[in-house]
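Two proteins, back to back. First:
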Amino acid sequence: MTNMAKKNWDSNLTSEQIHVLRKEGTEPPGSSSLNSEKRDGDYFCIGCGTKLFNASMKYESGSGWPSFYKALPEVFDTKTDYHLGYARTEYHCKKCGGHHGHIFDDGPEPTGKRYCNNGICLFFESKKA
């Protein structure tokens, strides 16, 4: 990914979205309207439009961030993050490199995973009835 391509995508983002997507920040817990989203549909990367999650993968974790027990195949790269002084698995959109959140091992079956996503990094499109 070239810096020019990221710059062009970034021109459509708010400063808060850039802070999270490009600088690996975190939005305040409970701040995303997507926490209460219950409709059928899909979640996309705000940085590039890649479809990341289906609504059927979402669950209420009580963490304050939209949470999913799995992602669509091959949409994220991961790395180890030590920002809090211990190892956490951080995930980024493969297409634009945007930071979305962290993966934890306290999610529901069948995966046992929790993709704890910053809602500011997502947009939702509902399925038509």
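And the second protein:
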Amino acid sequence: MQPSVLPGVLHPRRAPGFVASTLAIARKDMLIELRSRSVILSALAFAVLALTIFFFAWDPTAVAPIDLAPGVLWVIFTFSGLLGLHRSFGVEQPTHAMDALLAAPVSREAIYLGKLIANLGFVILVQAISLPAVALLYNVPVGAYVLPLIGVVLLAAVGLVAVGTLFSAMAVTTRLAELLLPLLALPFFVPVILPAAQATARLMSGRAVSEVAGYIELLAAFDIIFLVVCTLAYPFTLEQ
């Protein structure tokens, strides 16, 4: 016999699950950015500015485009990504929205992963615009190896965002957050950027995909390590 339900008594809502909480936080950040467009516009402005400076400072008689393009590409990816990561937690500081988020019945790991997914979307958008622009300006044919190149770029984006999101959370409450985030994050970006840049240079040179398989495996390993470690470390940053 089922227990009767008293009229007028509301059932308490169940707390959202881990996946639902993560996706809800990611959706919230994406909607905020789509309305303000502060991260996207600043990152794209930096990408266009850096691309223009490199292009007009380039002497094609001294440096072949195939040698310059990979370096330009990863400079743009790295520093435009930092601009977006800085705003990841900073956008909630003026209204103290993070305090309300911490008081909500969601796990701290879900907050981190939700922020990570949103940041990853912004970084991929910048990459999707910068990669064709670099290929076009430097006349680098990418059609033959576009799929493995996209794979390298996406794997590197995951590693950069995993580290950058964690350090953004650590630096946001400091007085020199704009300076502290690059100082903390850039040393940890190196293990991701080096194999990604090497793989990009070899693919753009027309090398076989088998020659970059080791770099791709290294990127995947770093992604797994950084995702696990940063997800577990994030709750400790809230004890500050």
